[in-house]
Each structure stands twice: as structure tokens, then as C-alpha cells.
User: Which sequence fits this backbone?
């Protein structure tokens, strides 16, 4: 869910990605709160969402501090625009995670990503110089670790419940060896994260490959479009126009 | 049942109209996804509408999309390939993002409603807007003005509405000659987000003088009954990143504002930016008057329907109401693209039923809160304390307001937006300037130049404000501004904007705010201040979970719901 900053040079762009990742987590947690019937779980998710919203706001504050200190130049794309959380892929419009994953997998995912987030923030904090921003980042790191911890607790509770309700051997195994599963989930998320980072770092290079293809399409299709006569809403009765037509 | 859908360009939405022509549900995708301005296919809203109304596909008679997707996509593309180079980013963007455009509407619909066998209609974009206004109007003939950024092929239109089944286009302004795109370009210039910050420009305009009017008029004018934009000043025909060109910066002799710097009264260049906003506002008002005059000349009508994003300009509406050739202007509560879903659903209804049956008993004030919301709030007890049951809640709210407390509401069904009319509001005593400042700048973290709206009972409205009969229906949904009477200005100065106007809301005693105001009148409080219940950059609160989250984020002490009044645990 979150980009590891690694050694990429663009600190400001990285902060922007962190901000959206936290914002995306807030939306995921709120969606989870709405999906559960348990009042206790609802409140737990809402509290988690509150933290993530706050983190997102703080990261954009850190970004502003960096800009004001002359670290990098302000770009319009650094301004927070909620819809970018979708276009950047931090929330999937096809469905929130809680809609796509079962409860256990969802919590595994949260657990893995909170630890990955903490790791990523550790990397980020090494590149931030001012004390105010560092304090913000270290507070966020501590809270991410706490989130991972509480996810683990919730997961263990669910596994106990599952064991009680169904008693299947597989579930019992998971109950006995929760960490084995979590490690698998953790590795899976880490791999996905690496792919995301690869795409982020190589975006310009990938564009060089795909741009000529796009140019050819535009050249061919654009030539046709230039010649098209597109119907307009004329003085005929609009209510009598063909309602099945898309043009 | 008839469904209307608006999506892919502005905040997407779903409207549901029943077989008697009543609006029975309305939902914006952003309310459910919590992504402000969410323009993707409204899958969550669709599911929610189906669930809340216990509908399955077999019960839906028609689904209407609010525009002609292929026409809309091809029009801008054709303009761009003709006028820009092969490598132009706007053209490239159009190709790259085809899968995010309305072209894929049918595919998206089938993904989420795979067993759909009902007819799927496509209404003309501006027809959907006109019908969304006509839905709230009495039967009769009208001149309908639609003005927004861009429709299927035009940027403004005049329709002659002879009846609900006979609507003709009598004038259009083709792309790129657009009032909406001009205002958005100025919004961009002033450092606010396009499609989001336009209302901030309107608020900012009140602080300025139109000293850049002549300069801006060089870039946009109405000649020979045509709106003409000089696109050398505007990049919206070339760029996806910036709506204005460097030529406009040179013309205005002021650097475009960087959007990362908070703008407030004491900010550098504040006055210049306010003057630019004032000049743009005056130009839009003047051009609208010319378009309305032209509509009157073409149709002979004196009653107008005004829709499209530009119709949200409540200041312009007040000026229009002073034109002698206008008897009445009707603006729907949601005049932008999301509200066009209502027009689209109405299109489906009219196509199927041919006549409209509901008008005799239709009352606007009873149709302001169509969005059905799940009312379960059992979980509140873990974080909130209930301090009043529903029967005593109004009295207690009035008492708290008189003590200058701020109350948030998440009360039953939701308004269509964009203005909060009481069911998703934050309210306080409008006679206390200090409380309003606290609500505006501390709780909502808004800039000081942004106004807060007053709400008043119909029976007291004329004792406080100059009421124009021509736009009276607009006051029910904060659609227009007016001025307070001289003798009351001092007592409600917290809700009077710097230019002496107020964007008022008039309600009756059947509405929640009306009930609260009736109770408050016993304490000599006749006006309350109202702002939407949301954090800046969030959509309006929708569910009870959103309400709880938001009072925690904003540290609001009291929350009123249909189940009672709650206090946040410390």
C-alpha cells in the first residue's frame, strides 16, 4: 500500500506518495468500519481511520515545510486533491479491500502494510533534516507500529472465533501457527510494494516504450476524427431525438 | 422506477424517480466512497439505491445516462487534433484515458447490473440539465439557460421549453467558448482546485474591485449573439495541467498564485487576487445578463430555468433577478452535473409515461432531502453520550444554540447538495459573531474570506432580508444571495459577507432547521448560521460512521440525529 522511499532522489514526490497512501488507508479503514456489524470493531476501525487521516494531513504539512525550506521546487501536482488517491492506485475503484478480501485476509493485509509503512517511514526519516518534520514522522512511525500490533490482536481474536465456530483442522492450524500465515501475507505485500516502486521509478522509461505506440494510434485515428461530422443538438425537439443513440 | 446516472466528468451520482414521477432517492458516489469529487462510475451509489429501495433489475423500467458519450468524447478530441500538435498532452490524455471516460458507461453498468434487461437511454447533456430544473418547476413554458464547462458538444445553450415533451435548442455556444471553463481558468489562476474552488473565487470577489474587468473582457466577450473566448489566453484547450496561459499572466500583470500557500486577508497580493476574482465575477454576471436577454428575445419567455455549474453562482443570480424582462428564475437545488442525474431519470420517466402527473401537489420544501440513509447508530454509545431523546432534542438544541454552542447534524435522509440544508449541517447562533468565527475558522479551518450562510423561518424572512419574489424558490436551497435590511445588519453581522450580501436559506416549520428556529424564536433568536458538515477536502457527511468520525476530527461537542442529541465523551 505504501511506497518505500529507497534512495530515489525526489523527496517531495515521495512525501506526496506517502500522504496519499495514508489517505487511502484512512478510506479503507472507514470502509471497513461501515462493513462490520460489531459496534466494537466499528469503533476500532474508526479510530484507526482517524489516525490515518491525521497522518495524511501531517505528511502534507511536512511537505510544505520542506518546500518552505527550499528543498525542491513546488509543483502543482504536490497539492492534495482527493481524487488522486484513486488515480494513483491507493484506493481501487473496483472495490475497497474489505469488499474484496475476507475478514481474515483483510486483517493480514492491514498488519503487513502497517509494518511496511513503519519501515518506509524509517527510510524517509533518514532523509529529513528539520526537527519539526522529524518529530512528526517519528510519531507517525510509532502509531503505525501500534496499528500493526492491534491488527495482530484482532486477527488472533478472529482465529479463536473461527476455531470455536467451525473447528476445521485448517483453521486450527492457522490458530496454532498464525505467524506462518502472516509472514506469507507480509512477503506478498512486500513484493507488490516492490512492483509499485519499480513502476514509480521507471515511469519515464516505460513512457518511452509506449509513447510511439500511442503516437501511431493518434496519427491514424486522429486523421479519421478530423473528418467526422459530429451531430449537434439542433432546433428539433430534443425529447423526440433517438434516446438509444450514444452520439 | 427510473434511474438516472451522471458520471465520469464531475462528481457522479444516481437519481431514482418512481412511476408517479416523484424523486425517491438520490446519491452521490463521493458520499459513499468518501473521495471528494469522485467521478468514477457510481457503483456504490447504485448498490445503495437498489438496497435502500429494495429494488432488483426487473423493477427498473429505464436507465438513462445524462449525456451522449460518444458525441462528448469526439467533440473535444476533434477540436484538439485539429488545433494542436500530435504530441499535445490534451489529445494524448483523451486517448490514454478513454477507459475512464463515459464511452465505457454501458460496460460499467453491465458489470454492476449484469441482469439488466430494461432499456438504456442516453439523454443530451444539456437536456438533462434543463429537465433537472424542469423537475422542480410548475408546468408551463420557459426559457432554459444551461451554462457549464462543457456538455456533449457545446458550452452553453438556450432551450425553449414549450412543455415537458417539447424542448427545443434555440442557441448554443460551441466548444471552447465557455463561461464555465473561463471561471475555472480564473479559479486555477488564483491557486484553487478546478471544479472545486470556484465558490471560493465567488467569496473572494467580494473583497475586490473589478479593476481588471477591461483586461478580462479582451479575452471573453459576447459579440453578435455569440460568446467568444480568445483561447490564446487560456490553456484549457491545450493542457491538462493548467487552464490559463502565460499570456493571461502578462495581461493581468500579476503572478498566478501558488496553491500551496494559504490565502487569507493578510496574505501578500491578497488585494490583487481579490480584484481579479471581482473582475471575473462581474464579467460572468454581465455576460449572463446578455445571454438571458438573448433567450428572452428568442423565445419571448419571461420565466427562466437556469442550470449547469454556472448556475451555482448565487451572486450572479441576485443581479439577474433585477432584470426587468425576467419574472421568475428557477434553479434546481443541485444545478451541476451531479444533479443532472435527476434530469436523466426524469427523461426516462417522461419517455415511458409521456405525461407528468405529480405537479399539483409537488412542494419543493418537501423534496429537498431525497437521499435515503441507513439509520443504525447503536455504536454511538461507545463514544458518545445521549443527552436527549428525540422528543426533547429540538428544545435542547435550541437551548445549546442560545448558549453559543455549535451543533452538528446527521439527521435522517440527506439533501442533494452541494449546499447543506440542515440534515448534514453545522449550525450555531447567527447573532453571535464570535461563535460563527469559531465555527468557520477553528472547526472548519476555512479562510476568513469565506462566508457562512444564515437560515431563517419564512415568517420572519422579510423582517430581516430583502426578498425578491423572482428568485424566492432559490432561497429554499441557498441558491441565491440577498441583502439584509439596514436595521438588522448589526445583529447578524457574522453571516453578512464583506460586500453586504448573505446567501440565505428560508425554511418552513416542517423542516428540521425550521423546528429549531421556531424553538429559538422563544429566546429572541431568529437566525442561525449554517455550514456543511464536512472537513475541507472531504465530501459532506453521509452515514452515521462518517458523522462520528467527523465530530472526532473536528472536535465538535454535540451531534443531533433523528434518534436524539449526543454529546462527545471527553
Assistant:
Amino acid at each position: 500500500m505504501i511506497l518505500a522511499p529507497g534512495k530515489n532522489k525526489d523527496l517531495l514526490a515521495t512525501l506526496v506518495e506517502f500522504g496519499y497512501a495514508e489517505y487511502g488507508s484512512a478510506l479503507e479503514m472507514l470502509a471497513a468500519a461501515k462493513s462490520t456489524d460489531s459496534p466494537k470493531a466499528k469503533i476500532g476501525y474508526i479510530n484507526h481511520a482517524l489516525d490515518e487521516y491525521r497522518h495524511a494531513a501531517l505528511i502534507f504539512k511536512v511537505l510544505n515545510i520542506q518546500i518552505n525550506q527550499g528543498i525542491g521546487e513546488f509543483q502543482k501536482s504536490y497539492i492534495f486533491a482527493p481524487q488522486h488517491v484513486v488515480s494513483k492506485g491507493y484506493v481501487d475503484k473496483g472495490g475497497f479491500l474489505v469488499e474484496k478480501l475476507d475478514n481474515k485476509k483483510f486483517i493480514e493485509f492491514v498488519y503487513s502494510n502497517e509494518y511496511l509503512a513503519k519501515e518506509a517511514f524509517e527510510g524517509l526519516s533518514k532523509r529529513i533534516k528539520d526537527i519539526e518534520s522529524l518529530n512528526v514522522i517519528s510519531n507517525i512511525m510509532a502509531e503505525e507500529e501500534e496499528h500493526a500490533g492491534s491488527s495482530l490482536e484482532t486477527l488472533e481474536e478472529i482465529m479463536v472465533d473461527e476455531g470455536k465456530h467451525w473447528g476445521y483442522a485448517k483453521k486450527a492450524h492457522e490458530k496454532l501457527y498464525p505467524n506462518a500465515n502472516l509472514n506469507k501475507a507480509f512477503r506478498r505485500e512486500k513484493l507488490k510494494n516492490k512492483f509499485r516502486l519499480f513502476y514509480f521509478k521507471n515511469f519515464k522509461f516505460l513512457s518511452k516504450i509506449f509513447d510511439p505506440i500511442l503516437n501511431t494510434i493518434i496519427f491514424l485515428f486522429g486523421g479519421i476524427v478530423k473528418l467526422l461530422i459530429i451531430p449537434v443538438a439542433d432546433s428539433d425537439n430534443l425529447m423526440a431525438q433517438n434516446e438509444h443513440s450514444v452520439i | 422506477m427510473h434511474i438516472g446516472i451522471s458520471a465520469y466528468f464531475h462528481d457522479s451520482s444516481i437519481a431514482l424517480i418512481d412511476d408517479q414521477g416523484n424523486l425517491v432517492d438520490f446519491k452521490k458516489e463521493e458520499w459513499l466512497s468518501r473521495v471528494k469529487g469522485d467521478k468514477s462510475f457510481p457503483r456504490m451509489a447504485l448498490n445503495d439505491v437498489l438496497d435502500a429501495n429494495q429494488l432488483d433489475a426487473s423493477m427498473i423500467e429505464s436507465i438513462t445516462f445524462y449525456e451522449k458519450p460518444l458525441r462528448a468524447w469526439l467533440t473535444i478530441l476533434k477540436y484538439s487534433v485539429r488545433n494542436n500538435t500530435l504530441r499535445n498532452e490534451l489529445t494524448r490524455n483523451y486517448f490514454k484515458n478513454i477507459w475512464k471516460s463515459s464511452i465505457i458507461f454501458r460496460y460499467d453498468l453491465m458489470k454492476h447490473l449484469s441482469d439488466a434487461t430494461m432499456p438504456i437511454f442516453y439523454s443530451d447533456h444539456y437536456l438533462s440539465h434543463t429537465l433537472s430544473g424542469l423537475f422542480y418547476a410548475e408546468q408551463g413554458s420557459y426559457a432554459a439557460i444551461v451554462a457549464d464547462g462543457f456538455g456533449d458538444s457545446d458550452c452553453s445553450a438556450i432551450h425553449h421549453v414549450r412543455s415537458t415533451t417539447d424542448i427545443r435548442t434555440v442557441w448554443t455556444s460551441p466548444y471552447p467558448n465557455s463561461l464555465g471553463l473561463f471561471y475555472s481558468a480564473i479559479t486555477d489562476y488564483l491557486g484553487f482546485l478546478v471544479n472545486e474552488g470556484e465558490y471560493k473565487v465567488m467569496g473572494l470577489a467580494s473583497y475586490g474591485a473589478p479593476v481588471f474587468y477591461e483586461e478580462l473582457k479582451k479575452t471573453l466577450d459576447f459579440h453578435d449573439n455569440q460568446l467568444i473566448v480568445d483561447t490564446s489566453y487560456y490553456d484549457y484547450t491545450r493542457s491538462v495541467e493548467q487552464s490559463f496561459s502565460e499570456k493571461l499572466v502578462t495581461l493581468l500583470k500579476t503572478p498566478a498564485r501558488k496553491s500551496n500557500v494559504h490565502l487569507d486577508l493578510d496574505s501578500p497580493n491578497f488585494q490583487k487576487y481579490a480584484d481579479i476574482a471581482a473582475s471575473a465575477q462581474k464579467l460572468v454576471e454581465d455576460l449572463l445578463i446578455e445571454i438571458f436577454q438573448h433567450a428572452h428575445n428568442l423565445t419571448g419567455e419571461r420565466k427562466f430555468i437556469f442550470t449547469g455549474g454556472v448556475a451555482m453562482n448565487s451572486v450572479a443570480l441576485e443581479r439577474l433577478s433585477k432584470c426587468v424582462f425576467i419574472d421568475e428564475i428557477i434553479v434546481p437545488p443541485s444545478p451541476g452535473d451531479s444533479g443532472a442525474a435527476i434530469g436523466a431519470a426524469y427523461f426516462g420517466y417522461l419517455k415511458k409515461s409521456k405525461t407528468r402527473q405529480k405537479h399539483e401537489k409537488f412542494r419543493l420544501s418537501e423534496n429537498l432531502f431525497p437521499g435515503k440513509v441507513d439509520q443504525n447508530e447503536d455504536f454511538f454509545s461507545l463514544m458518545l453520550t445521549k443527552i436527549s431523546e428525540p422528543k426533547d432534542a429540538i428544545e435542547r438544541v435550541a437551548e445549546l444554540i442560545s448558549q453559543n454552542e455549535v451543533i452538528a447534524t446527521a439527521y435522517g435522509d440527506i439533501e442533494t447538495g452541494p449546499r447543506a440544508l440542515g440534515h448534514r449541517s453545522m449550525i450555531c447562533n447567527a447573532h453571535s459573531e464570535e461563535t460563527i468565527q469559531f465555527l468557520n475558522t477553528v472547526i472548519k479551518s476555512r479562510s476568513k474570506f469565506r462566508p457562512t450562510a444564515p437560515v431563517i423561518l419564512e415568517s420572519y424572512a422579510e423582517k430581516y432580508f430583502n426578498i425578491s419574489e423572482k428568485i424566492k424558490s432559490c432561497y429554499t436551497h441557498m441558491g441565491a444571495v440577498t441583502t439584509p435590511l439596514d436595521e438588522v445588519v448589526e445583529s447578524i453581522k457574522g453571516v453578512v459577507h464583506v460586500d453586504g450580501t448573505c446567501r440565505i436559506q428560508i425554511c418552513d416549520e416542517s423542516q428540521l432547521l425550521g423546528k429549531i428556529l421556531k424553538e429559538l424564536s422563544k429566546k429572541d433568536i431568529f437566525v442561525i448560521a449554517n455550514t456543511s458538515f464536512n472537513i475541507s477536502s472531504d465530501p459532506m457527511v453521509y452515514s452515521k460512521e462518517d458523522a462520528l468520525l467527523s465530530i472526532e476530527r473536528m472536535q465538535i461537542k454535540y451531534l443531533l440525529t433523528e434518534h436524539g442529541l449526543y454529546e462527545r465523551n471527553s
